[in-house]
Structure formats: C-alpha cells, structure tokens
C-alpha cells in the first residue's frame, strides 16, 4: 500500500525560524516580496500597470494589533490558493528557465511560512486578476490546517491582502516605528511605491531611487549623489567610489573606498539587493579577496539567492561577476593614476596592504602604482619612488626580525634598507626586478650587513684577544660565536647577528624546551646534524667605550658577568625571545653585578 509523507508544520516552522531565517523580522521581507512579485506577474499581462503595496497597522483599544499587507497584483484563484498558498514548497514563480528567474524575487515556496514566527494564523483575502474568479478568503494555522471560503457577496479589486494578528510574544514587531524601520530596511530600493498607514497618518516609505537609476545634469551632481548615498548606507565618511556594472547577473551599484585602513584579514561585507529587495548587508565574496578596502552596494537582477535569502549561490555567474568587478576596480585605479593622482595617493596611503597584494599579482598595477607604495626603511618611511630617487640599489631585508636586528646599525651607517618583511613586500621587489632587469637589488640580512663593518688592525686584535676568549667560553653553551669589528653607532657595545637559517635553528631549539615529546622528536630531526653549528655571533664594537674598558680590566669574573649581560641585552634589543637558560642568565647576571658592586662598596 502506498502512503504519503505527513508534514509536521510546527516542526518546519521551527526549522525555518531557528535555522534558516535570521530572525522573526524577516516576515516583512517575505510579505513585501510576495506583493512585489504579484505586481510583476500582473505587469507581464499589462506592462503599463501601476502597482503599489500598502501596509496598514490596526491597533484596537482592546486586543492585539493586526498588520495588513495589501498589493494590487495578480491575485490568486481558488485552485491557485490550494496549489500555491497551501502547499509548502510550491511556488508559482519556480523558474525552470534562468531567464524566468529574473521576473520574480521568490522561488522556493516557503516564504509565507515566516509569518508564523509572529502570528498564529495567516489570513489571506485575494481576488484574481483573471476574469471569472470570485474573491477567496484563506485561513492557515500553525497546526497545519486551513480553511477556504468564497466571499462572493463583496466586490474587491484584484490583488491580495494578508492579515496577521500579533502573537502576544511578538508585539514588538507591531508598532508603527518598527514596521517603518523594517520596510525601509528591506524595501527601500523596491521599484513599486510602498505606503504605510496608521489611524492618523500615511507615508510613502521608499520615496527615493538609488543613484544609478537617476539622471544628472552634471558629473559633479552625479558624484555628490553617489557619495551621499554611500555615506548614508554605511554611515562612513566615504570620499571615493567606483561605479559597478555587470551584465552577467544584471548587477549594478557602486564600490566605496573605506575611509579607514582595512587589513587583509578584514572580510568585506557588502550590502546587496535582489531586484530592489535587501538580501543582506553582510554578503561576502562579491569582490576578489584583495579588494578588502571596498564596500559595495549593489542591486542584482538575476543572481541566485540561497533559501535564507541572505547570500548567493556560489555558482559560475557569481564567479563571473566577481572576476568582472575585479577588472573594473583594477582599471579604475589605473585610470586614477592619470586622472586623479592625489585620490590614488589617498587610497594607497590608507590601503597599502591591499595595493601591495594587487601589485604583487598584477604587472600592470605594479608598473602604474608600485612606485607609490610606502615602505618602512632604516631611514624612515618612504615610497618606492622616493627611495629610488635617492638610491641606485634597492637594499632590503625579507623579515621583520632581520630588520629589527639591523635597523639601528644600518641607520647609523647611513645605510637605507627597506623592511620587506611584511606580507608580499619582498615579492613586490622581486617582481620589480623581473620587470626591469637593469634594476639593482640587494637582499641583506644581519650577516651581510656585518660584512660592511670595518676590520680591526692587528694590534687592535691583540688588544681584544682576552676579552674575545673569555666571551667565547661564556657563550659557547648558547651556540653563539664571537667577533669584534668597528661599527656605528659607537654607543652600541654589541650586536647579535644571525641570518635567516640560523634564526630558524635557534627558534627550533627554543621550541624544544616547551614542545611535547612528539614535537620534540620532530624538532630533533630538524636540528639533527647541526649540533656543532653556531646559531649566531655576538659582534663587539671596538669603538664603544664600554668595550674599550672591558679590554683593559683583569677581573675575569667581572668580564664573564659583563659578557653575559651584554649577550642578553643584545638579544632583547633585536627582539629575540629569550630561552629559559637565557632568562636564568639574565637573572643571575643582574644579581651577580649587584653583588660585585656591593662587594666593591664594602671593600
Ligand atoms: N501577495 C500574493 N499575491 C499573489 N500570490 C501570492 C501572494 N503571496 C503568495 N502568493 C502565492 O503563494 C506562493 C507561495 O508563496 P511563498 O511566499 O511561500 O513562496 P514564494 O514567494 O513562491 O517563494 P519564496 O519561498 O522564495 O519566497 C507564491 O509562489 C504565490 O504563488
């Protein structure tokens, strides 16, 4: 025997309200959308037909308020009420053909159920625009039952009215302020007029059109209208926008440059409308990932919304729109370089992380605005252009750690080195070299910088011999060699020097101190065979007065303590995290020095 599925309506409503829709307020969106769709259906029969949606709030002295949504659209016949209104998942708008999908906003046949989130009963009174059908009253209830009545005795104009009486726990949605707020939020850009009436007033809620639908006398007027619209939409003082248009998906709108810095981890959230109905103000993935400095407002005609209506299906159309918008933005920025260079400068100075990303990805962008990218250097922040005007060779380090190590010394030696340790910096420099093979670039680290230091004369070496030997013994357990050179600034007694590989080994060694046995084994494998290798060297500055004094004193104990302290201080200066043993050294060294000073005092 064949059986039919039973639908437990309460369960479905629960599913929708807790898992699909973002909250009970979406009933306003669903009702607006049904009204507008019904008008579109009627306009298919009569393209000049003027539709409107009217919303009324009735607040009786006794009892709960009722909201009435009325449209003068296509209406429903009795048969259609059974088939579409009362059958979950049935929709008169389901489009087998993609082009049909562009006619209506709805398509799933579940939207009306959202009304059960605020009311126990939905009453629909409808008159079909098709000739020869009487008006119908339909009453659907949460328990899954419904009644249908012909109401021949009254004559009503074609269209549909939906009545919802507030559920006691949802009264907050049944005030004039809340309804106007929600209607404006979802329906501000809908192409049919929406009126709101209470006992004492009537207003048109959506009385303006988006800037891309208006015509302008001058370019300036157009620009002001777009900027004013963006400021209002995002509540941000935006100064620049990029018009967007894509035939695929029928998407039109504008991308606004954020007036504050956005990092590459920021997710761009866009305000997206579907045929004038707000889908969401948090849609992601509409622009390429690098475009984090932009926020869009767009209206799409035929991208496919997901059932919750709060996003789009990730399909080939969305992919095409994203690609196309990426190209539009890129071309716009490239044009700015010639038409409004000061604006491009403003955008780059605020959003250089994103611009770097774009320049690293794209040769043309690198050629056009690569020079404007700011870089941190040992002699202050400057753009690539300023750097190149002053120096023939682009000298750079490729890690922030390396930069910290060398910054002070390089600056004192008047060496201008770029910190290319941030995301994509080094790539930008290397790409620049590929594009301009004649360009001289030099990759530095602390070791290569140290090669620029001045060597000691033989007699000076002799003078430093004892100090170096003691230092060697003290630092050998820390895998740190020693050396002595002359370098700037004279005030710096020592410099801790390691290159990228040595830095890595040092970090692996330190990680072993805190790692579990599994990680410990892995790290052992990483450092295997390097047991005898030094991870760094401590370079004394011969010209430094303290070092000069250390070379003259005889007290071994004092030299040892001083070397330990100089070693730890050099690590701290270079922002190297201290290992447990180095921490102990710091503590003992400090106490030791205090002790020595106290002994002296006594003596
Ligand atoms: N105001 C209205 N005028 C005419 N028909 C309506 C109206 N409201 C609902 N309907 C009919 O009821 C059907 C079901 O409506 P419902 O809102 O549940 O789903 P939908 O709009 O088709 O799709 P979605 O779930 O995507 O919103 C519609 O397809 C339409 O045929």
From TrEMBL:
ATP binds at residues 30, 34, 71, 160. One of its GO terms (molecular function) is ATP hydrolysis activity. It comes from Thermoflavimicrobium dichotomicum. Transmembrane segments: none annotated. Pfam families: HATPase_c_3. Belongs to the heat shock protein 90 family. The keyword ATP-binding applies. It comes from the Bacteria. This is Molecular chaperone HtpG. Keywords: ATP-binding, Chaperone, Nucleotide-binding. The keyword Chaperone applies.
């Amino acid at each position: 025997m064949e059986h039919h599925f039973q639908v437990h309506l309460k369960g479905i409503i629960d599913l929708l309200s807790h898992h699909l829709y973002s909250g009970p307020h979406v009933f306003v969106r669903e009702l607006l959308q049904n009204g507008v769709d019904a008008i579109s259906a009627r306009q298919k029969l009569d393209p000049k037909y003027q539709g409107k949606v009217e919303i009324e709030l009735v607040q009786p002295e006794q009892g709960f308020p009722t909201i009435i949504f009325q449209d003068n659209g296509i209406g429903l016949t009795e048969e259609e009420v059974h088939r579409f209104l009362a059958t979950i998942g049935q929709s008169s708008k389901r489009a087998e053909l993609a082009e049909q999908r562009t006619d209506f906003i709805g398509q799933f046949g579940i939207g009306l159920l959202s009304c059960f989130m605020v009311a126990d009963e939905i009453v629909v009174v409808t008159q079909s625009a098709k000739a020869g059908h009487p008006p119908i009253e339909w009453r659907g209830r949460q328990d899954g039952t419904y009644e249908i009545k012909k109401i021949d005795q009254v004559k009503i104009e074609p269209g549909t009215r939906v009545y919802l009486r507030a559920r006691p726990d949802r009264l907050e949605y049944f005030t004039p302020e809340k309804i106007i707020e929600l209607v404006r939020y979802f329906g501000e850009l809908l192409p049919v007029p929406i009126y709101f009436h209470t006992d004492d007033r009537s207003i048109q809620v959506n009385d303006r059109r988006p800037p891309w639908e208006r015509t302008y006398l001058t370019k300036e007027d157009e620009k002001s209208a777009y900027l004013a619209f963006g400021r209002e939409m995002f509540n941000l003082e935006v100064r620049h926008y990029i018009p967007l248009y894509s035939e695929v998906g029928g998407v039109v709108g504008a991308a606004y440059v954020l007036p504050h810095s956005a990092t590459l981890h920021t997710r761009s959230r866009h305000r997206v409308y579907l045929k004038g109905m707000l889908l969401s103000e948090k849609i992601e993935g509409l622009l390429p990932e690098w475009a984090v400095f932009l926020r869009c407002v767009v209206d799409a005609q035929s991208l496919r919304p997901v059932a919750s209506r709060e996003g789009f299906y990730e399909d080939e159309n969305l992919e095409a729109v994203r690609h196309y918008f990426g190209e539009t933005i890129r071309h716009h920025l490239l044009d700015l370089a010639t038409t409004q260079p000061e604006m491009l400068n403003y955008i780059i100075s605020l959003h250089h992380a994103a611009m770097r990303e774009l320049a690293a990805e794209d040769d043309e962008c690198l050629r056009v605005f690569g020079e404007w990218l700011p870089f941190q250097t040992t002699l202050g922040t400057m753009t690539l252009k300023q750097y190149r005007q002053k120096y023939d060779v682009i000298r750079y380090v490729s890690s922030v750690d390396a930069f910290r190590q060398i910054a002070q010394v390089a600056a004192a030696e008047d060496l201008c080195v770029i910190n290319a340790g941030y995301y994509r910096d080094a790539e930008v420099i290397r790409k620049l070299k590929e594009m301009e093979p004649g360009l001289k670039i030099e990759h530095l680290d602390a070791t290569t910088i140290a090669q620029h230091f001045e060597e000691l004369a033989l007699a000076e070496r002799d003078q430093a011999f004892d100090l170096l030997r003691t230092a060697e013994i003290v630092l050998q357990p820390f895998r740190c060699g020693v050396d002595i050179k002359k370098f700037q600034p004279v005030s710096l007694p020592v410099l801790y020097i390691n290159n990228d590989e040595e830095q890595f080994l040092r970090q692996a060694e330190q990680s072993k101190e805190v790692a579990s046995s599994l990680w410990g084994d892995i790290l052992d494998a990483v450092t295997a065979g390097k047991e005898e290798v030094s991870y760094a060297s401590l370079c004394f500055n011969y010209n430094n007065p303290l070092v000069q004094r250390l070379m003259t004193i005889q007290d071994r104990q004092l030299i040892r303590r001083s070397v330990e302290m100089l070693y730890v201080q050099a690590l701290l200066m270079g922002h190297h995290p201290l290992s447990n043993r180095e921490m102990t050294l710091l503590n003992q060294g400090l106490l030791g020095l205090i002790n020595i000073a106290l002994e002296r005092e006594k003596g």
